[in-house]
Amino acid sequence: QVQLVESGGGLVQPGGSLRLSCAASGSIFRINEMGWYRQAPGNQRELVAATATGGNPNYADSVKGRFTISRDNAKNTVYLQMNSLKPEDTAVYYCNAKGIYEVGRSRFDAWGQGTQVTVSS
Q: Quick check: 90 and 26 in contact, CB under 8 A?
């Protein structure tokens, strides 16, 4: 089992900033990729940003230049710094991790419980 615990969501005014954090724990041999997705009411879940171990980050066009994803590999933690937030960024943000289990060395694709981000004046 792999658990992802997210924190950092909340209510912020347009133009403001928030920082999301997600820590992975459990039977982890290796994490290959960590990322953030979001889902607004009535919409499908979409990729916000993701970063593969040793690779370059990948961002949705709608957040390029405003959001920054980073990782602390030693802590199995991923962060999402969100600046210049817009009302259309309002959604539930989900952390995702893909990797290899310690036991059995099979692949995992784990999700966090989600954290609400609301951008409103």
A: no
**b/e map of 38-56 (b: 16 or more CB within 10 Å)?**
beeeeeeeeebbbbeeeee
pLDDT tens digits, one per residue of 22-54: 999 999 999 999 999 999 999 999 999 999 988
| Residue where the block lists tokens 């981000």 | 117
Q: In this predicted model, what pLDDT tens digit does every residue of 82-116 receive, in sequence order?
A: 999 999 999 999 999 999 999 899 999 999 999 99
34 and 71 in contact (C-beta within 8 Å)? yes
Q: Which of 41, 42, 73, 47 is nearest to 60 (CA)?
A: 47
